[in-house]
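Sharing a chain and its predicted structure for anyone who wants a worked example. Both blocks are below, sequence first, tokens second.
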Amino acid sequence: MENGDIPENANEHCPGPQSESAGKSDSCAGCPNQEACATAPKGPDPDLVAIAERMSTVKHKILVLSGKGGVGKSTFSAQLSFALAGMDHQVGLMDIDICGPSMPKMLGLEGHEIHQSNLGWSPVYVEENLGVMSIGFMLPNSDEAVVWRGPRKNALIKQFLKDVYWRDIDYLVVDAPPGTSDEHISIVQYLQATGIDGAIIVTTPQEVSLIDVRKEVSFCKKVGVPVLGVVENMSGLSQPLADVKFMEIGSSIDVTQDVISCLRENAPELLNVLACSEVFDSSGGGAERMCREMGVPFLGKVPLDPQLCKAAEQGKSCFEGNNKCSVSAPALKSIIQKVLASMTE
């Protein structure tokens, strides 16, 4: 981003986000971008050379973004990484959600620590071909709050990029915090020279979430990051009827066993159907319509699947083993195949 790349909502006489006076000049007063511009790195950074050298062993870099928190972005990042590793790719997952790191939990790595070698920081490995880096590994306990301002966050992100020894990897998945903040500006600036394949944006169907996704798409366009596509997560609740819990209306009496017994006796074939329910209002057309309007790819929908929630809680892949998700795994696989295809075009 050059000094001349002025945000559309900037004040008159904006000096530009890369100017030394960005966020500090009189013309910046009251600008919605003032804090982000003031804390973002300015001018040529000598560490960019070291970052470029580290990233030279990384073939593809994917950012995973969201407009709001709680839409399943980190779950998607974790399962994307599991899926790529399951295809025998060498994968790195970098968690730059400094104040809300969830990757140690979502990959079953709680309690692990980062180790230093003569080559740099070593990621924590889930499998031989899936390494993870997160501030969560650096905290004394998982309840410890990270209360940092922008410059300190930027410094840690830079350290993750220039000091972590990823080895030769095929994919680096970067799980970013929600919104467009210091972390986003920093990661784009640090990686821009090394090439970012693009960003995947995760949302839920309702308009209150899509409002912020539009801003996320706008951010990507302004900073020159291709949008690989948008994923509509929690797109309706889907689960096998046999897994549904039934309650008497107006009471807390569980009648599940009665219902299941009745179905087994009278209509056993119904136990193999999916029970679906719209959880969020998507009457506005959801993410698919928004993508058409904004000219970005729509990658697909992932249902709200209790099995996927369980896999995420246990830090497991939803694609194999006892945690294989019959409902959400096929949807995720289809989305991931679209992403990989778009990166090879």
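Comments welcome. The first helix runs from residue 34 to 39.
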